[in-house]
Write a structure and sequence with these properties.
Layout (H helix, E strand, L loop, with lengths): L2 H4 L1 H11 L7 E9 L3 E8 L7 E8 H6 L3 H12 L9 E6 L3 E7 L4 E2 H8 L4 H20 L2 E2 L8 E3 L5 E3 L6 E2 L16 H4 L7 H16 L9 H10 L12 H10 L10 H6 L1 H6 L9
Antiparallel strand pairs: 1-2, 2-3, 3-5, 4-5, 6-8, 7-10, 8-9
Helix pairs in contact: 6-8, 8-10
Bound molecules: adenosine-5'-triphosphate and magnesium ion.
C-alpha cells in the first residue's frame, strides 16, 4: 500500500518541504532584539501544518560585506545547523534574499540570562550550578564535534519557556583540529592565552565557564576594571578575589579557582566540572531551576 496514493496531502507537504525557505513562508511578529548586523524577530512559519513559532534573525548583506564577514557567517551557519543538543538553540535553516540573510532559529521564550541576572543581581547556588551544568553539557557536545564556541557570556545565553538554558550566537565559534591564533571574544571573558595572543584551544571555553560561574554568583565578572588595560592586567595576573558578600560556598569558590587557571592545560575539564561536588550537590538534573 503506497502512502502516496493514500494521502495526497502528505505528498503535497513533502513537496513543500523540499522547496527552499523564503520570506513569504513567515508571518513576522515583534522584534526580539538587536544584533550587531541586524535584528531578530518573532515569526511564525506558514509552510508546515504546525505553524511553528521561531526566531528569525535578519542580517544585512551590506553590513557583513562591509566587514568581509560573509565567509565567517557561512561558517557560523554550517557549524550551527549541525548542532542538535537540548542546551543549544537550534538553527533550522537559512535563506538569502538580495539584501539580507535570514536565519531560522529556535525561539527562546525566556529571553537572555543576562537580563535575569541584572534584574535579580546574582543567582542562587542552585540556579548557577544548574546553568553551569547545562552549559558544560552543551560545550562537551560541541568540543566532541571539534567546535569551540569562543563567545560564552551571559548575553549569548538564552532561556526557553521552562527556564532551560540555551546557548546562542555562534558568531565566533570555530571548527578546529589544531590550536588557533585569533584574538576574539568579549574582554571580560578573555582567557590569558587570548590576551597574549598565543595559541589557544578548547580550554578557552572552560576559562569562560569560570568567569561565568563567578558572575552568576557575585553579579559582576571577576576581573572587572575601569579600563581595558586594567582588565587585561588582572586577567594576566589571574587577580582573583572573592568578596565577602554575597555569601558563596567554599565548594563553588573551589570550582571557580580550578577553572580560572592561567595554564590552560591545568584547567578543570568539562567532564570534571560535571563531576564536581558543587555541581552534583546543587544542579537540578532536569536543567530547569527558576529559584
Ligand atoms: P552577533 O554576535 O551575530 O552580531 P548578536 O549578539 O548581536 O549577534 P544575537 O545575540 O543573535 O545578536 O541576537 C540579539 C538579541 O536578540 C539577543 O541578545 C536576544 O535578546 C534576541 N534573540 C536572539 N536570538 C533569539 C532567539 N532564538 N530567541 C529569542 N530571542 C533571541
Ligand atoms: Mg549575542
Amino acid at each position: 500500500m503506497g502512502s502516496q496514493t493514500q494521502n495526497p496531502n502528505r505528498e503535497k507537504e513533502e513537496e513543500q518541504n523540499l522547496k527552499p525557505w523564503c520570506l513569504q513562508d513567515f508571518e513576522i511578529g515583534k522584534p526580539l532584539g538587536k544584533g550587531k548586523f541586524g535584528r531578530v524577530y518573532l515569526a511564525r512559519e506558514l509552510k508546515s501544518q504546525y505553524k511553528y513559532i521561531v526566531a528569525l534573525k535578519v542580517i544585512y548583506r551590506e553590513q557583513i560585506e562591509k566587514y568581509s564577514l560573509y565567509h565567517q557567517l557561512k561558517r557560523e551557519m554550517e557549524i550551527h545547523i549541525n548542532l542538535h543538543h537540548p542546551n543549544i538553540i537550534r538553527l533550522f535553516g537559512w535563506f538569502p534574499d538580495p539584501e539580507r540573510v535570514f536565519l531560522i532559529l529556535e525561539y527562546a521564550h525566556g529571553g537572555e540570562v543576562y537580563e535575569q541576572l541584572r534584574k535579580i543581581g546574582h543567582f542562587t547556588e542552585k540556579r548557577a550550578a544548574t546553568y553551569i551544568a547545562s552549559l558544560s553539557q552543551a560545550l562537551a557536545y560541541c568540543h566532541e564535534k571539534d567546535v569551540i564556541h569562543r563567545d560564552i557570556k551571559p548575553e549569548n545565553l538564552l532561556l526557553d519557556h521552562e527556564g532551560r538554558l540555551k546557548v546562542s550566537d555562534f558568531g565566533w565559534s570555530v571548527q578546529m583540529r589544531s590550536k588557533r591564533h585569533t584574538l576574539c571574544g568579549t574582554l571580560d571573558y578573555l582567557a590569558p592565552e587570548m590576551v597574549e595572543n598565543i595559541a589557544h584551544d578548547y580550554a578557552i571555553d572552560n576559562w569562560a565557564l569560570g568567569v561565568l560561574c563567578y558572575e552568576f554568583l557575585y553579579g559582576v565578572p571577576p576581573f572587572e576594571s575601569e579600563s581595558q588595560s586594567g582588565t587585561f592586567r588582572r586577567i594576566m595576573k589571574v587577580d582573583l578575589s572573592f568578596p565577602s558578600t554575597p555569601q558563596v560556598s567554599t565548594e563553588a569558590k573551589n570550582l571557580i579557582s580550578q577553572l580560572l587557571v592561567k595554564d590552560s592545560s591545568k584547567r578543570l575539564s568539562l567532564q570534571k566540572i560535571m563531576e564536581h561536588s558543587w555541581i552534583i550537590r546543587n544542579s537540578d538534573p532536569t536543567g530547569i531551576c527558576n529559584e
